[in-house]
Amino acid sequence: MEPRMPKCYKKESKPSSFCPGCGHSLTLKNLGFVMDEMKIADSTVFATDIGCSLLAWDFFDVDTVQAHHGRVTAMAAGLKRALPKSVVLAYMGDGGGYAIGLHHLIGAARRNDPITVILVNNTLYAMTGGQMAPTTFKGENTSSSPEGAFADEEPLLGPEFLRPVCHKEAFLARTSVDNPFELKKYLKEAIETQKKGNFSFVEVLSYCPVNWKTDARGTMDFMDHLKEIYKIGVIE
């Protein structure tokens, strides 16, 4: 039996551009199911950042644009103002969202821009070789911290960081690729929040076995450890 794919995926078959075991594919597949179930593909604009997220530029049969690194939130906010009836999705990694793009993310949250930001957090800069990112946790080994990340530096907790500047009706949550039911639930809630005129943000904890240097069991254990650092749930 052929694996079930979202209807909004492009009809032409194409190999995945992501590394083996990468969580982006799981995030995008479930996002596709959400777009199908909500019947919003015809009105959706999908905006991608530079980094691993840009590899999603031709997965969906929806209007798609790409921004310079860190600028996708600002571009999404502009698109929503130009096309207010559209569902605008900004898709990025933790490097683009929490480093070079953090000021745009804070601005959109503070203005309560009615867009949905989906940020995939794998704790490092994956495409460029696995360097430390704002989400790298204490002691984590990366290509730029081979002996472990700095012991006095806490990782950025994005949704918790944004909550104080957000409108009370904004939706902020964190989920993970190993719980597709919750992932879909939060993506739906985020898009519904946008349609009501408010900002929404979903951080997705994601696998990166190539840069984590883990086998299958090690990858799952790594994810369990991430959940101890990054608490899953809606951020009130």
What does this entry show, briefly?
The chain is α/β, with parallel strands linked by helices. The chain contains eight helices and nine strands. Helices cover 35% and strands 17% of the residues.
What descriptive keywords fit this protein?
236 residues, Rossmann fold, seven-stranded mixed β-sheet, 9 strands
Q: Mind explaining what this structure looks like?
A:
The chain has 236 residues and is an alpha/beta fold. It has one domain (24-234): Rossmann fold (3-Layer(aba) Sandwich), CATH 3.40.50.970. Helices cover 35% and strands 17% of the residues. The chain contains 8 helices and 9 strands. The protein has helices at residues 24-38, 72-82, 94-100, 102-111, 158-162, 180-195, 209-212, 216-229; strands at residues 44-48, 63-66, 87-93, 116-121, 124-125, 131-132, 171-176, 200-205, 233-234. The strands form 2 sheets. The protein has a 7-stranded mixed sheet, with helices on both faces. Strands 5-6 form a two-stranded antiparallel sheet. Helix 6 (180-195) links the parallel strand 7 and strand 8 (200-205). Helix 3 packs across helix 4 (102-111). The mean pLDDT is 93.
- Major beta-sheet overview: 7 strands, mixed
> What is the CATH architecture annotation?
3-Layer(aba) Sandwich
SSE class: alpha/beta
Mean pLDDT: 93
Return the CATH class: Alpha Beta
Low-confidence stretches: none
Topology at a glance:
Blueprint: H1 24-38, E1 44-48, E2 63-66, H2 72-82, E3 87-93, H3 94-100, H4 102-111, E4 116-121, E5 124-125, E6 131-132, H5 158-162, E7 171-176, H6 180-195, E8 200-205, H7 209-212, H8 216-229, E9 233-234
Parallel strand pairs: 1-2, 1-3, 3-4, 4-8, 7-8
Antiparallel strand pairs: 5-6, 7-9
Helix pairs in contact: 1-6, 2-4, 3-4
